[in-house]
Write a structure and sequence with these properties.
Blueprint (H helix, E strand, L loop, with lengths): L16 H14 L24 H14 L3 H4 L6 H11 L6 H6 L18 H7 L1 H14 L9 H6 L8 H28 L5 H20 L6 H8 L3
Helix pairs in contact: 4-9, 6-7, 7-9, 7-10, 9-10
The structure holds zinc ion.
The site of zinc ion has 7 residues, from loops.
Length: 237
Amino acid sequence: MGQEGGWTPRFLRPFNDWEVEEVERFLLTIQGERLNADVEDRMVWKETKNGIFTVKSSYNSLDHSCAVTFPWSIIWSPYVPTKVGFFAWEGSWGKVLTQDQLKRRGWTLANRCSLCCAEEETINHILVHYSKAKVLWDLVFSLFGANWVLPSTVRDTLLGWLASFKDKKHRKVWRAAPLCLFWTVWKERNMIVFDNEVLSVQRLKNSFVCNLFLWAKSSIGVGPFTLFNFVDWLGSC
Ligand SMILES: [Zn+2]
């Protein structure tokens, strides 16, 4: 085009790496495509077959992308009671009625965590960051002999909850463990709020291990074990 039109570029320089990459990507994209010179250029919506935008196709594409980033499979697990799955589901969407949610619904209250009385009460604080919840997280990791860095939210914790084990039963108990922990801390929180109980770390630990043991026996079929054998078995993964 420059030659035919008598046009001479005024600034010539070699392409930099970024430009070379862009050109390569462009050539790859158009590779194998046939251009029809008789048809005008037009915008095409890639989510429908005919290339025309519809709200339904847009919603479906968003819905699909949500499915990728939500921990469905670990929440709707056959290894924990259904009510626990519902609680984890609500927690992952930030819908549990902690004080921050009550404030958002118009309640007038000073948001103060019922467990530590220091931070604001949110579901991510209670289940992930709260110091006594961390004691339970440490217990989980030491029981399974795992090293882990917890993310900041309930949802990200479940999304990242992957580990390899030598057998399926260990993997199933591992997948039930965070839901068991959430449930145990939430029950403790409710005992303090509604029954005027005093926080007990020993009760937290006992409840967590006993719940996990009962669910593993009834839904996963580990054993026959005593509680002591179960703890021993967890560490053998
Ligand atoms: Zn707290």
